[in-house]
């Protein structure tokens, strides 16, 4: 079980959190204007890196807030967690 | 051993060896050649099966199967070996049933005992929703010509005596869907059997050879791969690398609709035969059968975050053991011997991706997620046909990478609600 440092609450066990996928994926501003390939990229394509991975968590059983983290997907070590737009 | 001079296994051979004479290695261990007609990346069950069918059915024998480790050392050697074909959608049922039919004669085909044991796979229902979903599966499977039947709790317990069906359970058993032709097979033997048969047909299986780059020409078409043992030329490359597919496809500039997660399994100390069948419960996350060595083989869930660590969190395994103890009170005092993880590549619709890619000459077979072992023979067969002809095999066609653009998803995620 990971020990995840929530930027508001401090280190808490993983089962207080909800994993919310890869970070920094922006929804196209005007979905009707983009082609199918762009929409598919937004919905489905993921970097899935072996190494440093930017991802989102939600502290669902704590403060309830979303934040970003950078975690190494080989060691599972969390390098940093940051508040959104920080 | 020369290509083609395979040592067959038979009662006569067994008798002969009893009086002396050594068994020869089951496959060659060749140095990589400068080039091949086809390079398969990943010597797991699916990759080895692909190479075998390329050689045996499509006459393409100048084939190499590369692996960064040893053959069958990834998910093929780490899974809980459940085989069934009672999926909901016609596309899924077609490919898993194609595989199941090949399982039934695989030992004879390969002259290698893969220990396929159709002992029945029983999926437990614990809620009204489960009951409705599984009955829907039973009806869909009947239309597809696939065996699947509904059992009452009493019938389920008659089929699997250690199962507890009392109404005081936290999640009481409300019924079960049973596929009698489902079962298990010996995972290592599947890899070894395909490796041996492919090697005898001339396929080079090159272990400890990691692919570190994919070469392409000015038009973007594949010309070969760079490996830790030097460059290997090939105009057709098939990536069959499970959890590491994203990493490999990235070498050709492609992003995939995949995320890799650790999936855990564990085995108990060996006991006398107690589990006559396979029992799965998606709702309480328990997957259990008994190996021929006597160990209870237990499958747990995936972690919630993507990882390549090949080790999941302890709480994931504990969650499954809670469910096992509730369903099978007799197993409560068993000790667990080993646990481990494998990296599974999951797609958004929980169905695999088999076929062509936007890069000419680059083929991919991935996204089997938490349930790929059962498909090994069928997956290898249709992927070999796709690579040999350059056209998706009719059974593979719906599983194209392009479906994520067109929206024609095969949504087994919604159908099963969880991993399968």
Strand order of the largest sheet of chain B: 5-6-4-14-15-16-13-17
Main pleated-sheet profile of chain A: 4 strands, antiparallel
Write down the CATH class of chain A. Alpha Beta
How many beta-strand elements of chain B? 19
CATH fold descriptor of chain A = Folate-binding fold
User: What separation lies between the terminal Cα atoms of chain A?
Assistant: 27 Å
Q: Which ranges of chain A are low-confidence, i.e. pLDDT below 50, for 5 or more consecutive residues?
A: none
Pattern of helices and strands of chain A: EEEHEEE
Order of helices and strands of chain B: HEHEEHEHEHEEHEEEEEHEEEEHEEEHHH
| Percentage of residues in helical conformation of chain B | 25-40%
The proportion of strand residues of chain B reads 15-25%
What portion of the residues of chain A fall into strands of 2 or more residues? 35-45%
Described by its quaternary structure, the protein is heterodimer
- In CATH, the architecture of chain A is 2-Layer Sandwich
Total of DSSP H or I helical runs spanning 4+ residues of chain B: 11
CATH superfamily of chain A: Folate-binding superfamily
N-end to C-end Cα span of chain B: 40 Å
What average pLDDT do the residues of chain B reach? 95
How would you portray this structure in words?
Chain A has one helix and six strands, in the order E-E-E-H-E-E-E. Chain A is globular, with a radius of gyration of 15 Å. The longest helix of chain A is centred in the middle third of the chain and has 8 residues, at 36-43. Chain A has a single domain, classed as 2-Layer Sandwich (Folate-binding fold). Helix content of chain A is 9%, strand content 37%. By secondary structure, chain A is mainly beta. Chain B is α/β, with parallel strands linked by helices and 420 residues long. Chain B is globular, with a radius of gyration of 21 Å. The mean pLDDT of chain B is 95. The chains are: A mainly beta (86), B alpha/beta (420).
